[in-house]
Predict the 3D structure of the following.
Amino acid sequence: MIDRDDSLLDTTRESLRAGEARPPELVPLADNLERPAYYDIPGCNMNVPEVIRALGLSFDMGCVIKYAARAGKKPGVPPGQDVRKLIACARGRLDFIDAKGEERNP
């Protein structure tokens, strides 16, 4: 059994119940873990994960944005690899939409 501290989870639930737009900020474990430079958007005060959350995107669509933004920027990852991942996520979302017969956002 894993011993864990659920206080952050409880605080987040309380914040969401109170109608706050975003849960409390997480404390980064290391300087680059919470906000790696390849997710920064020049001239913007938000990084890619923050934009995805602000837009309320689905997992698949969030990944499309993530891989598009970081292609060619993440050390050790060829740009083509991120583009292939982007395409796979977009196809996954399209398959979901086709299966449900939906052509618009909820």
Summary: Residues 7-31+46-100 form one domain.
